[in-house]
């Protein structure tokens, strides 16, 4: 008997391809795509048996908030996260939010279907090695490496952190130099070092990466050094 399900993903082509494959296998697909921001509302309204919820960044803070809301308002809906190869922190976060399982984007359709059937039956639908990593993360969070934001923050000097915060605030080289009491050429050098250490090619990318990983929140209040630097 087919499962009444939804495929919700930002990438419409991928979602529709998966939905079509599942339809051919006898399942009833209620919807094929939706932006992540509207995923929870759509699932709550349509109330499928199983929802395949796509994500490209399973370790990003707050990424599984839609799962939390779905399980709160429609606890009978089994949510399967569909994403890339996760790290233990990402898979743990999915289960902590209430997901019934995690399916890799590159999984064969047979594997996706097995996960769907397990989720509908109330079983954990995840590869054993991923499940083991998830339990380890939940039970021993301190034993896991620091998150991405903390890792990036540890690569920067205090002065480079201040530069990054100012870049994220939209300050250009002239304003950075004036605010820090340094020469514009020195400010430009600091910016280039920050970009190099973060592995990005532009100030906009640096600001986006810092915001996405929570680096700016971890940086805290920036100490303003009034002293000039040549």
Radius of gyration: 22 Å
Strand content: 5-15%
Average pLDDT figure: 82
Q: What characterizes the major β-sheet? A: 5 strands, parallel
Give me the side-by-side strand order of the main sheet.
2-1-3-4-5
> What is the tally of helical segments?
12
Shape: elongated
Q: What is the count of β-strands?
A: 5
Fraction of helical residues: 40-55%
Distance from first to last alpha carbon: 74 Å
Q: Uncertain spans, ≥5 residues at pLDDT below 50?
A: 222-230
**N to C succession of SSEs:** EHEHEHEHEHHHHHHHH
Description:
The protein has 230 residues and is an alpha/beta fold. It has twelve helices and five strands. The protein has a five-stranded parallel sheet, with helices on both faces. Strand 4, helix 4 and strand 5 form a beta-alpha-beta unit. Helix 4 packs across helix 6 and helix 8 crosses helix 11. The longest helix has 15 residues. The C terminus is likely disordered.
């Amino acid at each position: 008997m087919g499962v009444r399900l939804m495929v919700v993903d930002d990438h419409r082509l991928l979602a529709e391809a998966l939905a079509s494959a599942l339809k051919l296998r006898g399942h009833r697909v209620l919807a094929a795509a939706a932006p992540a921001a509207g995923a929870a509302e759509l699932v709550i309204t349509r109330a499928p048996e199983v929802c395949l919820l796509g994500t490209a960044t399973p370790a990003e803070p707050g990424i599984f908030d839609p799962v939390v809301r779905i399980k709160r308002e429609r606890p009978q809906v089994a949510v399967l996260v569909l994403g890339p190869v996760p790290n233990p922190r990402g898979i743990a976060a999915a289960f902590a939010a209430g997901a019934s399982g995690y399916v890799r984007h590159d999984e064969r359709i047979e594997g996706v279907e097995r996960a769907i059937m397990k989720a509908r039956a109330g079983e954990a639908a995840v590869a054993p090695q991923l499940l083991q990593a998830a339990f380890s993360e939940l039970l021993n969070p301190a034993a896991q490496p620091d998150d991405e934001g903390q890792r990036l923050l540890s690569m920067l000097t205090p002065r480079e952190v201040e530069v990054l915060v100012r870049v994220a605030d939209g300050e250009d080289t002239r304003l950075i130099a004036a605010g820090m009491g340094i020469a514009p050429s020195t400010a430009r050098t600091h910016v280039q070092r920050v970009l190099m250490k973060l592995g990005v090619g532009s100030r906009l990318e640096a600001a986006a990466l810092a915001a996405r990983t929570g680096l700016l929140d971890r940086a805290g209040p920036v100490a303003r050094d009034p002293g000039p630097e040549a």
